[in-house]
Write a structure and sequence with these properties.
This protein is an all-alpha fold. Helices cover 82% and strands 0% of the residues. Helix 4 (78-106) packs parallel to helix 6 (132-146) and helix 8 (166-191) packs antiparallel against helix 9 (197-218). Belongs to the major facilitator superfamily.
Length: 434
């Protein structure tokens, strides 16, 4: 998971909801209301949303650390086992927009509770399925059900929490996303040391169940939700308008290629760590702690953008990813770890920059722009992750890294095109000002 995309959601929904609340207050001439920090209701709300993030991202990535073991135990190819990730993220991508639209009619709480409850229940079935086909199918269903949480959790907070305390509540939710993603990898990886992979998966699913129950029991009733009239035509027109903007279209492409390359590397790196370097499953699971480098780098991305500019910063980060891939091709454990650290940090910084850039460009219908960005983000994870698995299964590690290198070269071309468009826009702004 991925905390930087939800940091972007934070900014998007904050702007949108704050404007909406200001307009309502102006018309009604009433003070701002909402759940305030320091009250018991606020504590319940924050803990509930934190638990939602922990449960969602625990469930989303619960099989990633198990891929080498699943491949061996079920006698399947790495690309087949990786479909337990690709199917989940792919269906999540397809269902994020519909889930968001449903919440406008039925309410955020109903979508949150229904989505997470059903997804957790599906997770409890996963350890008992008879074959890989059924496991992949259920993981796809789980991804579709999970989509309701990232689609509306931020909106729930923006509508119900007092604006002065909203930043704190959002920060807690983002932390839950990050830690939940790590737990989804670390719990099953640790359990593999003492038990079978099905039991390891069950342990992860039970953890998601506990967090899901906490969310359902603690989530306060909504007070500020008002159903809206949503038309499919209007939503489709808003999305189509964003795709017609060349800068936004290129940023959506950044999300697709960057996330696809990133997930591909993490999906199959475990196989190399075990077979080439002889690491145990629990040590391979510890590799996912590298995500913490992304937590740090995404917070530093703003400083880099301020210093270099959006375009040059994106180019620099892409080049860093490319250089890190070269290091990953070297047959040395420490070089691999250092290169993975650099690749992960650069990816999250790029992702943070790109998602924030979307919010700057899309001055109207920002929620739809965010939805399109996340759609491409998770679709890249699904499709590129699957294709990369085929290459990994039949080619050497060096060829696999070369394939990822080609993807990053394509990403470099996209960021260069973005930088040129940004430079042209700034030049026109200067001329217009003169």
């Amino acid at each position: 998971m991925e905390n930087s995309d939800f940091e972007h959601f934070t900014n998007t929904f904050l702007r949108r909801m704050m404007v909406s609340m200001s307009q309502v207050q102006e018309k009604l001439q009433v003070p701002s209301t909402g759940i305030s920090r320091g009250t018991s209701t606020y504590k319940r709300a924050v803990l509930a949303i934190l638990a939602a993030g922990l449960a969602t991202f625990n469930a989303l990535y619960c099989t990633q650390a198990l891929l080498p073991t699943i491949t061996h135990e079920l006698n399947i190819s790495p690309s087949q086992s990786a479909l337990t990730i690709s199917a989940t993220t792919g269906m999540l991508a397809l269902c994020i927009v519909p889930a968001s639209i449903l919440s406008e009619k039925f309410g955020r709480s109903k979508v949150l509770i229904t989505s997470l409850t059903l997804a957790v229940l599906v997770g409890l079935i996963l350890p008992f399925v008879p074959n890989i086909a059924t496991l992949i199918a259920l993981r796809g269903l789980q991804g579709a059900l999970l989509a309701g949480t990232p689609a509306v959790a931020m909106t729930w907070l923006a509508e119900e929490i007092n604006p002065k305390d909203l930043g704190h509540a959002m920060g807690v939710y983002i932390a839950g996303n990050t830690v939940g993603g790590l737990m989804g990898r670390m719990i099953p990886a640790g359990l593999l040391e003492i038990t079978h992979w099905q039991n390891a998966l069950l342990g992860s699913s039970l953890a998601a169940l506990v967090f899901g129950l906490i969310m359902v029991l603690l989530l306060p009733a909504q007070q500020n939700f008002h159903p809206k009239k949503i038309t499919l035509k209007r939503e489709l027109n808003a999305m189509a308008t964003h795709w017609k903007n060349p800068r936004l279209a290129l940023l959506f492409a950044v999300a697709f290629v960057a996330m696809g390359s990133f997930v591909s590397l993490y999906n199959y790196l475990g196989f190399r760590m075990i077979h080439q370097f002889g690491l145990s499953e629990v040590l391979v699971g510890a590799v996912f702690l590298m995500y913490l480098s992304g937590t740090w780098s995404s917070t530093q991305a703003g400083k880099l953008r301020d210093k270099l500019g959006n375009g040059p910063a994106a180019i620099f980060l892409t080049l860093t990813m490319l250089l890190a891939l070269a290091g990953l091709s070297i047959n040395n454990l420490w070089t691999t770890i250092i290169s993975l650290f650099a690749f992960t940090a650069a990816f999250f910084a790029l992702h943070s920059s790109a998602s924030g850039w979307v919010g700057l460009i899309a001055t109207t219908d920002r929620a739809e722009a965010s939805s399109m960005y996340l759609f491409c983000y998770y679709l890249g994870s699904s499709l590129i992750g699957w294709v990369s698995g085929i290459i990994f299964s039949y080619q050497s590690w060096v060829v696999f890294i070369a394939w990822l290198g080609l993807l990053i070269l394509g990403l470099l071309a996209i960021t260069i095109a973005l930088a040129k468009l940004e430079k042209q826009r700034l030049a026109k702004s200067v001329i217009a000002a003169v």
